[in-house]
Structures are given as structure tokens and as C-alpha cells.
Amino acid sequence: MSEVKKFLYVNRKAPYGTIYALESLEVVLIGAAFEQDVRLAFVDDGVFQLTKGQSTDGIGVKNFSPTFRALGDYDVNKLYVERESLEERGLSEDDLQEITYEDEDDDWEEKPSIHIISRAEMADVMADADVVLSF
Amino acid sequence: MAYQVNGQTVEHDEEGYITNLGDWSKELAEVIAEAEEIEMDDERWEVVNFLREYYDEYQIAPAVRVLIKALKKSMGPEKGNNKYMYELFPYGPAKQACKIAGLPKPTGCV
């Protein structure tokens, strides 16, 4: 068996307008299917990907934001959001959708997957990863 | 390439997944199942309906592992296991059941 590596997917772009956000999410789901340790980081405009109440009716593309809530089923439960990026865009944790997972080791208790961390802590998260993929 | 159902033509891709998700109906599901050489019964409908609900909520077709885990949770271990799923859908539960449910091919399904 090969060793499990820590993959960090860094999301920097707004959800629509470019294909980066959707492609990143697809790669995350594929990576998770191969049972790697998957983490997601949201910085800069990437924080908009997790906002609640998204509607794409006017732009004719699929609203994929509900898919983030399925990540728990794929054992992806470490979503790091940079506090400074939120604040610079006038956002707070309340603007983000609730994403949870059920902890198998704790009687399937529902726990939050989103962690709001500072820019300095984000640097540590990046340093800790074996593989960093930027989108 | 297309399925014929009630005198209507429903387009599908080279693998048999329908092109427009809105075209789906129960009658169409029976037609796709027939093309897959699968006879729809209550057990299979249960899985197909589950997949449609999952897609409706999360906008993705789940990977097999996720599907089985979710079925285990909602229907119990006697149904949420690999053997039972492959008995129902011999060519892959996610692949075949998703096709019948009118969903896209599951992400990460090769």
C-alpha cells in the first residue's frame, strides 16, 4: 500500500465566470475516491464559492454550490477559509453555507467542516500539505 | 443516438446517458433499463429514486462507495452493501443505476 498523502486544493477564484472552481471540485471528488487525505483552502475571491443562496438562473450555468454539502459523504471534512479574505470582501462566517460531516469515530455526530482561520494559520496549512494544487 | 419513448425521441450520448436531464420520466427509465438488460422491480426503483433524490439535493451523482454508504445508512446493512448492489446492477451500481435514473455519469467513475 502506498502512503496516504495530504492533498491541499487551494481555491482562489469566484465560482462562476471561469471554470476553475467547478474543475477544482471535480478533482477533489475524484481525489477523495482514491482515499487520499483531502483538504480545501479558500482564499481571495475563492471564499465566494462557499456563500449561501447562490442562484445561477440568469447566467445559464449549473449552480454547483450544493455539491460542497456532499463532501462529507466523501470523507472530505477539512475546509479552511481565510478570515482576512472574507473581511476584505465584507463577508463573515454567517454568509457561508453550513457544511457538516458525520464523525464515524464519534457516534456519527454532525460536525462542521468549515474552519475559519487567519492568514498566518493558512500558511501553516499550506506548509503541512504534501501536495498543493492551486485553482 | 436516441431512446424512443411514447413516440418521443430522447437523445443520449455514446454510452447511453441522456443528454438533457429534464427529459427523464419513469417510462424512459424502463426503456433505458431494457437497453441495459435490466428488469426494473421495487428494489431497483428504490435505488434509482434514491439517486435522483441525491442528485436533486447535491447536484452530483455519487461515487459507488458513497452510494453504498448512504444506502447503508438509510436502508440498513442488508441493502447497503456491494454484493446486493451488484446483484441489482451487474455492470456497476453507480454507472447503470445513474444511467437509468437519467443522471450524468458519476464524477470519478472510470
Automatic annotation (TrEMBL), chain A:
Query: Cell division: present as a keyword of the record?
Result: no
Keyword annotations: Transferase
Record bears the keyword Glycosyltransferase: no
Source taxon at top rank: Bacteria
Stored SUPFAM superfamilies: DsrEFH-like
UniProt-recorded Gene Ontology molecular function terms? transferase activity
What family does this chain come from, according to its entry? Belongs to the DsrF/TusC family.
Q: What is this protein called?
A: Sulfurtransferase complex subunit TusC
Question: Where does this protein come from, organism-wise?
Answer: Maritimibacter fusiformis
UniProtKB/TrEMBL annotation, chain B:
Catalytic residue positions: C109 (cysteine persulfide intermediate)
**Transferase among the record's keywords?**
yes
The cellular location(s) given in this protein's UniProt record come to: Cytoplasm
Q: Name one GO cellular component term.
A: cytoplasm
Q: Name one GO molecular function term.
A: transferase activity
Could you confirm whether the keyword Cytoplasm appears in this record? yes
Which UniProt key words apply to this protein?
A: Cytoplasm, Transferase
**One example of a Gene Ontology biological process annotation:** tRNA wobble position uridine thiolation
Q: Where is the signal peptide?
A: none
Would you say which domain of life the source belongs to?
Bacteria
Coiled-coil residues: none
Which family would the database say this protein is a member of? Belongs to the DsrC/TusE family.
Q: What is the name listed in the Swiss-Prot or TrEMBL entry for this protein?
A: TusE/DsrC/DsvC family sulfur relay protein
